[in-house]
Each structure stands twice: as C-alpha cells, then as structure tokens.
Design goal:
By secondary structure, the protein is mainly alpha-helical. The protein contains three helices and no strands. Helix 2 packs antiparallel against helix 3.
Length: about 100
C-alpha cells in the first residue's frame, strides 16, 4: 500500500486507518450491540442463547464456505463446530460463588 495516492486530486488527504466512516453502518451497529450485550442482558441470555447462536453460526459459516464456495461437502466443518463448542465451554465457565449462611 502506497503512502501517497498519486491519482488523488491535489489538496485532498487520505483518510487514516482509524476513521470510523469507513466501517459500514450495519457492522458498526452489530459491534456496538455485542459490546453492550453483557451490560443489558442476564446470565441466561449470555450463556444459553448467545453461546448457542455462536456455535450454530460457526457451523453454518463453515458449511457455507465448504458447500457454497468450494462446492464440496466434508466432515471438516464438524471440527470447526467442535472447536467453537470447546471454546464456549472453556470461556463460558465462571467460578462457583460460595454464600455464607
């Protein structure tokens, strides 16, 4: 990537890499919702609904790449699903709270 765009009209400047106007609005909205999700939702929504949605979304995405673009069906997508389920199980655990009586 060139530092200077030679085809740009004189007097214009290239936008920096951190410029938020380059991000499409739907992507920005989804990112904001994902950041605010732990603040506004409960434990059930985060663990049960959101984690299962991420697992099933990963399976669907792997099938999309293999069957849609690659025009082949393989069992490799279940490896991706297993990795997603394992990561959810590892990162989804919380320490047991001991309450005094």
């Amino acid at each position: 990537m060139a530092l200077v765009d030679r085809n740009a009209p004189a007097g214009t400047r290239a936008r920096p890499w951190w410029d938020l106007t380059r991000i499409p609005p739907p992507v920005l909205i989804v990112a904001i919702v994902l950041v605010l999700l732990p603040v506004v939702s409960g434990d059930f929504v985060l663990r049960q609904i959101f984690c299962y949605a991420m697992i099933l979304g990963t399976i669907a995405l792997s099938l999309m790449f293999l069957a849609g673009y690659g025009n082949m069906v393989s069992l490799v997508q279940m490896t991706v699903a297993g990795v997603a389920a394992y990561m959810t199980a590892i990162f989804g655990t919380c320490p047991t709270v001991v309450r005094g009586g």
